[in-house]
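From the shared-data thread, chain only:
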Amino acid sequence: MNWNNCFRQIHRWLSVAFTAAVIVNIIAVLQQKSTVWVGFLALLPLCLLMLTGLYLFLLPYAARWRARCE
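Structure, as tokens:
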């Protein structure tokens, strides 16, 4: 499997996890049962989304740089 495709798939599934965590957070706030861990629930997928998104963002620039150096 190509690493780029693997990162794209991970990024997609992390977006699903982040969306689910935000929905759980909204439901907890509406029921006034919000605790600290519910608020932090969305931070882990969000941080991982940022890392994979930055990698995917930089891929075209890295390809151009590699092509120029060859």
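The chain has a mean pLDDT of 90.
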